[in-house]
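Aim 2 progress update. The chain analyzed this quarter is reproduced below.
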Amino acid sequence: MKTGVRRILQVIAGGVLLLLVLEAGVYNWRLVLSMRYRNLAELNHQLSWRRDELQVERAALLTPERLQRVGRELGLAPVSLEHFTVLRLYPDASGGEQYVCMEQ
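Predicted structure tokens:
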């Protein structure tokens, strides 16, 4: 073969080899990106779920009527002052008096 033809065949073979290497690199890069996307989509799903749970909890805490109803269902109620007795008075550092109370 002539040197010119051999050179052309080498250039074509090198180009094909370069395209194959680039294709493998692009394929691996796309694979890594799809794995990252899947992980981020799962994290997004988990965070959305947690946000919804927190919104429900916030709504429950911001509704005093609901809190009172749940407290009544659990047998909780505000304790009346008749159930407290002052046991001892301690002087406060600011000059006032601090009461120590205990439920009877």
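The longest strand covers residues 84-91. The longest helix spans residues 3-61. These observations will guide the mutagenesis experiments scheduled for the next reporting period.
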